[in-house]
From TrEMBL:
<dbReference type="GO" id="GO:0015666">
    <property type="term" value="F:restriction endodeoxyribonuclease activity"/>
</dbReference>
<dbReference type="GO" id="GO:0003677">
    <property type="term" value="F:DNA binding"/>
</dbReference>
<keyword id="KW-0255">Endonuclease</keyword>
<dbReference type="InterPro" id="IPR011335">
    <property type="entry name" value="Restrct_endonuc-II-like"/>
</dbReference>
<feature type="domain" description="Restriction endonuclease type IV Mrr">
    <location>
        <begin position="243"/>
        <end position="359"/>
    </location>
</feature>
<protein>
    <submittedName>
        <fullName>Restriction endonuclease</fullName>
    </submittedName>
</protein>
<dbReference type="GO" id="GO:0009307">
    <property type="term" value="P:DNA restriction-modification system"/>
</dbReference>
<dbReference type="InterPro" id="IPR007560">
    <property type="entry name" value="Restrct_endonuc_IV_Mrr"/>
</dbReference>
<keyword id="KW-0540">Nuclease</keyword>
<dbReference type="InterPro" id="IPR052906">
    <property type="entry name" value="Type_IV_Methyl-Rstrct_Enzyme"/>
</dbReference>
<keyword id="KW-0378">Hydrolase</keyword>
<dbReference type="Pfam" id="PF04471">
    <property type="entry name" value="Mrr_cat"/>
</dbReference>
<dbReference type="InterPro" id="IPR011856">
    <property type="entry name" value="tRNA_endonuc-like_dom_sf"/>
</dbReference>
Length: 388
């Protein structure tokens, strides 16, 4: 029988799983399932949807008896980390026999197994085994080979992995399983989300390094490390290019960045020695199109509050309601407070590090190469071939 991976459809965070384990221990498996059923039977209607946002209110209003007791314990465990309305994913995860995390005792109570106790104690071998089973390690490998990744960038390789190892085959299930596992990694500080893009952290790289096969020479690991070093070199080259380019060309670069980010009617004003507004554009906010003005500063000095006040003062001349100040350097500590001063037009601050991230995220000033293609032998296929 094929050992499928990525089997949990509503994949939770491990913190939520632990809260569920603690809360339902001592109840029967049937009682937990009945509680989930009692919640899901209250579907509401499109005209009158059910509000599940306040468990402190709806548990006592909509549940009774043991259903209410279990739901309340789930909600009260580990500082309200799991809303009982969304406990079904944890239930599925805990009830898979191959995970061996919970078991029913002779007196019909659901309790953590010895492996489940190790999971509660963050035993690395146990957690890493679950990560491997649910595709977490594969996802970390995909992220390790990139500086920044949108979900759309990861999806083709993730779908190929699912096609080979999982029963999830549709585009919709591929997207949902990818998102839920990214969220799991974010919750564990192994991945960070920056806007619409994701980046593996040092914690994630260290965890992946321990999980890769402990061989004397691991070509796959060496390749991923080489890709990381190369990308870091290119990032520093991009930083150097920006810091030495002509100021007016820098403004044009920012204009291209705004267009890549979805701004329309982007206009780079004439070269003016970095005085006043440098770039103007329109952006869709909800159903409204607004004008935004941008001032760019190609300088290594620290930007102080007067620059923010100057840009804010220029907004009325362009009928703009917000502005953005971009620098290759840094902002003084009090700039963040001044940028969002109550009652004043908001000013977005983008320093040199954030500018690099946006350029890379939106493919401005860099080209992505798909020259590296990794081939993995499908050993499971050979195991499944039968002899006549």
């Amino acid at each position: 029988m094929k050992n499928y991976k990525v089997i949990t459809p509503l994949f939770p965070t491990y913190a939520q799983v632990k809260a569920m384990m603690k809360a339902v221990s001592g109840y029967s498996l049937k009682a937990v399932r009945n509680m989930i059923t009692a919640i899901h039977e209250q579907t509401g209607t499109p005209q009158k949807p059910v509000d599940w946002s306040e468990p402190d209110l709806w548990i006592s209003e909509r549940l009774t008896g043991e259903d209410a007791d279990i739901a309340r314990r789930i909600w009260d465990t580990d500082n309200h980390i799991l809303n009982p309305r969304h406990s079904y994913g944890c239930y599925l995860f805990l009830n898979y026999p191959q995970f061996e995390l919970m078991e029913s005792t002779p007196d019909d109570t659901w309790q953590p197994t010895s492996r489940g106790q190790k999971f509660l104690q963050d035993d690395e071998q146990t957690v890493r085994s679950l990560d491997d089973q649910e595709g977490i390690l594969q996802l970390l490998e995909l992220l390790a080979g990139r500086e920044m990744s949108r979900r759309a960038d990861l999806l083709p390789e993730w779908q190929a992995f699912l096609h080979q190892h999982s029963k999830f085959a549709s585009d919709r299930s591929a997207k949902s399983t990818l998102y839920s596992r990214l969220y799991n990694l974010i919750d564990r500080d192994m991945v960070t989300r920056e806007g619409m893009s994701y980046r593996i952290t040092d914690t994630g790289r260290a965890w992946l390094g321990k999980a890769l096969p402990a061989r004397k020479s691991d070509p796959r690991k060496e390749l991923l490390e080489a890709v990381k070093r190369y990308n870091e070199q290119q990032k520093e080259l991009l930083r150097e290019q920006i810091s030495t380019m002509n100021p007016y060309k820098f403004e044009q670069l920012v204009g291209q960045l705004l267009e890549a980010m979805g701004y329309e009617q982007v206009e780079v004003t004439k070269a003016s020695g970095d005085k006043g507004v440098d770039v103007i554009g329109q952006v869709q906010v909800g159903i409204t199109t607004i004008t935004e003005v941008v001032q760019v500063k190609r300088m290594q000095n620290t930007i102080t509050r007067p620059y923010i006040d100057q840009l804010r003062g220029a907004l009325p001349y362009h009928k703009a309601i917000r502005g953005t100040l971009i620098t290759t350097g840094k902002f003084a500590a009090k700039c963040a407070e001044a940028a969002l001063f109550p009652g004043a037009a908001p000013i977005t601050l983008i320093d040199g590090d954030r500018l690099l991230e946006l350029l890379i995220e939106n493919n401005v000033g860099i080209r992505r190469s798909n020259a590296v293609e990794l081939l993995d032998v499908d050993l499971q296929l050979f195991d499944e071939l039968e002899m006549d």
